[in-house]
Design brief:
The chain is of the alpha/beta class and 244 residues long. The protein has 2 domains: 1-80 and 163-244, P-loop containing nucleotide triphosphate hydrolases (Rossmann fold), CATH 3.40.50; 86-159, no CATH class. Helices cover 36% and strands 25% of the residues. The chain has helices at 43-51, 73-79, 96-105, 115-129, 144-156, 174-189, 201-207, 225-230, 232-237, and strands at residues 3-14, 17-28, 32-36, 58-63, 66-67, 81-83, 162-166, 193-197, 210-215, 218-223. Strand 9 (210-215) and strand 10 (218-223) form a beta hairpin. The longest helix is centred in the last third of the chain and has 16 residues, at 174-189. The radius of gyration is 17 Å and the shape is globular. The structure holds adenosine-5'-triphosphate and magnesium ion (MG). The site of adenosine-5'-triphosphate has 12 residues, from strand 2 and helix 1.
């Protein structure tokens, strides 16, 4: 199995606070890797190191065998790394469609060059995530669950090879969670590798090929979901005080 992404001994400090400490991991091509851990464990920080919105204090990251460390965020998007944000900030004043167009215009290999092509791609992504009926609305008019779908559509419009999903199911009801799980499975069926952060245990368990667990910034487990979730350290660190 080929590795699409590898992290080696990653550490991230925010002044005195160590958000990640010596974390090594890998993601295989075509795999869904679930990233779990209690609040403040360092999950979003790890996604930000991969997408380039944060730089590691030390350690290395490689994407398709090439070091990411000197590569800017927008260049990482060109290489095929797309992400969603846990704290959603749609572009205000733009329609749902135009929000997703931004992803299409700045995505893999530089994105679509023609606005019309970007609009078509954005439309297809919005249909794909179930927002086809809201394309002409202002993005800020969307409620929480639809904003999550918008995040996903924006990232998918970038045509990523690697999709990083940061809590795209938070705040959704059971039916909506099932819908998003289906969407993520279909994304994987297109050959896209996925790292998914989620607190909804049932969802992460059914989706992930492998789980990586962080606790206080350290990796405490990595392996098949069944084994990892039975690991006493994981039970103590995470499941003992899960949110859902
Ligand atoms: N930009 C920042 N500046 C300072 N501290 C930060 C910053 N970003 C994150 N932190 C801190 O780093 C730690 C890890 O945060 P992170 O957001 O990665 O956790 P998380 O696992 O995503 O948590 P959650 O499940 O609540 O989203 C926390 O203690 C957080 O307060
Ligand atoms: Mg987070």
């Amino acid at each position: 199995m080929t590795k699409i992404l590898q992290g080696h001994h990653l550490t991230k400090r925010f002044r005195g606070l160590v958000a990640l400490h010596d974390v090594s991991f890998e993601l295989n091509r075509g795999e869904i890797l679930g990233l779990i851990g209690p609040n403040g464990a360092g999950k979003s920080t790890l996604v930000s190191l991969i997408s380039g919105t944060l730089t590691p204090t030390s350690g290395a990251l490689t994407f398709e065998g090439r070091s990411l460390l000197k590569i800017t965020t927008h260049h990482r998007a060109h290489l095929g790394i797309g992400r969603t944000f846990q704290v959603m900030k749609p572009f205000p004043g733009l329609s749902v469609l135009d929000n997703v167009c931004v992803g299409a215009l700045f995505g893999r290999d530089g994105g679509e060059h023609r606005l019309e092509a970007a609009r078509e791609a954005a439309h297809a992504c919005l249909e794909f995530v179930g927002l086809g009926h809201r394309v002409h609305q202002r993005a800020e008019a969307l409620g929480g669950p639809d904003r999550k779908r918008l995040e996903l559509a924006k990232a998918l419009a970038m045509k990523p090879k690697l999709l990083l999903c940061d809590e795209v199911m938070a705040g959704l009801n059971h039916v909506e969670i099932e819908e998003v799980i289906e969407v993520i499975r279909k994304v994987r069926d297109q050959g896209i590798s996925i790292l998914v952060i989620e607190h909804v245990m049932k969802a992460i368990q059914s989706l992930s090929d492998r789980l990586l667990v962080l606790h206080h910034g350290e990796k405490i487990a990595d392996g098949p979901p069944r084994e990892v979730l039975a690991d006493p350290r994981v039970v103590e660190a995470y499941l003992g005080r899960r949110r859902s």
